[in-house]
Amino acid sequence: MTPFFEQPRSFAFGPFVLNPEQQMLVEDEAPVTLGGRAFDILTALVERPGVVISKNELIERAWPNLVVEEANLKVNIAALRRALGEKAGSLQYIATVIGRGYRFVAPVRSSQPTPSSRKSRPFSGQSNLPPALAGIVGRAQDIEQIHKGLETDRMLSIVGAGGMGKTTVAVAVAEGFAARVSDGAWFVDLASLDDPAGVPGAIAKALGLETPPGTVFADLLDHLRSRDMLLVLDNCEHLIEAAATCAAEILAEAPGVRILTTSREPLRINGERVYRLAPLDAPPLEGRLQTDALLAFPATQLFIARAMARNRMFHLQDGDAPVVAEICQRLDGVALAIELAANRASAFGVHELRSLLDGRFRLTGGLRSWPERHQTLTATFDWSYNLLSADERIVLRRLSVFPGTFSLDAACVVARTECDLAKTIDDLANLVDKSLVTAEPAGNAVTYRLADTTRAYAQQKLAESDEADQVRQRYVHHLAADDRRYEGYAVQAL
Predict the structure, then answer these.
(1) Nearest to residue 122, comparing CAs of 207, 184, 173, 186?
(2) Taking the model in full, what pTM does it have?
(3) Which of 29, 308, 474, 490 is the residue whose CA sits 20 to 30 A from 92?
């Protein structure tokens, strides 16, 4: 068996996987026949996706130290395109850049040995990490920064809204970090756990410890005191108090243990470093946007990659690029939402799919391996909404009347609960912590906003309540008061 650090490179795109060292291209696990020259050209292109490779460089790569005509290159490019099943007018794998060369324009997911992976790693019994997701899009910088954060801090929480990709990033970080800890990296999935008292037992079970029921936590701490390891506590939000207590005790009692958590809110314990996972960037909305430009933005790159993985016949036509950009913008760059939409792209086409986004919470199409809360956007938001207190739910529903950003004063006027003003301010702060409201610096102040998908969900909840008309009227009165205040300032200025 080839050792981990000697695994060959591989490049995946659409339904294809290219292994340069093995001179092998497979499509859905079936070998694709390619000539040696064409194979060398394809390798040169996929090694640097999105980069224009000159004709001279490709000729030198395929025919080293030989003088050949440019026609030979064109013949092999044509053969590659046939092998990849390209069609005229579609989003191509290989684009011709007139007068310069060729560029590989499809999303590429690479797997290459890194310096850290070449170090000796713990044997397989020293880790229980789930398989890392192939083809993580747009998260390389996040993974690198979190990895560096764990080098200096023993406790780091990846925090973000539901469906942002926190677990995917955490597993990738843990896989890369496992070589740095002699006792390996261990994954603890708390999502299916209902009883907060069961958190220590879940950790012990993941580590393979068998302990009597009455001494689980004490035995766990005894086991961890002399260990050098990384613990990944995944999906902490519904057991946040128990997870925080457990993590704090482990940090205090086991100096060699580092903890990486994923949650929709921070654990708020001493020593915790919080990394908020941002949405994937999408292109600006402009009518002249070209298809090739979509690959420069992770949100649209993910959409294309997942649509092509679902159906290799999926192609984008001229004029589709602005539509895909709008879909990803309206889905707020949330990885789960983009994947759900992409999984339906071949059934409806991107133009029809855009019109269906008004019913985005009915979008289905999650993979069967995904947890139930990720099968629809509704399930994802229900998971977060059901964890809120009654007053936090009221405030979130009421904030949905704001179409854009709003101030703290405006939030207090419109969303104030029947409790005192201080309680409403606390509820707003908690919604920010729980990744349902975004706080953004604006000069010397802070403004707030709800992402489009969050606002749409909260508006549904407001419509189901008996206060929708009252809240909207309060919002209108607030706007009118603001207008009168502005007019007063203008008169004073005169």
Answers:
(1) 184
(2) 0.70
(3) 29
Average pLDDT estimate for 456-468: 90
**CA separation, residue 375 to residues 43, 77, 135, 339, 372 (Å):** 36, 41, 20, 10, 5
Q: What percent of the chain has pLDDT over 90?
A: 36
More confident residue, 49 or 29: 49
Can you tell me the mean pLDDT for 238-266?
96
Residues facing residue 356 across a β-bridge: none
| Matching residue, tokens 């890369």 | 176
Q: Where are the alpha helices (DSSP H) in 191-320?
A: 199-206, 216-224, 240-253, 298-310
Say whether pLDDT at 212 is over 90.
Answer: no
Q: How far apart are the first and last CA of the chain?
A: 83
Contact partners, residue 208, CB within 8 Å, separation at least 6: none
Query: Taking residues 269-298, what's their average pLDDT?
Result: 88
Q: Which residues of 289-301 are buried (b: 16+ CB within 10 A; e: fewer)?
A: bebebbbebbbbb
Per-residue pLDDT reduced to its tens digit, 181-195? 999 999 999 988 989
Name the DSSP letter for residue 277: P
Tokens representing 163 are 């469906």
Region class of 29: left (phi > 0), else alpha (psi between -120 and 50), else beta:
left
**Alpha carbon of residue 336 to chain centroid:** 7
- Which residues, other chains included, contact 293 with Cβ-Cβ below 8 Å and sequence gap of 6+? 283, 321
DSSP conformational letter for 470 = H
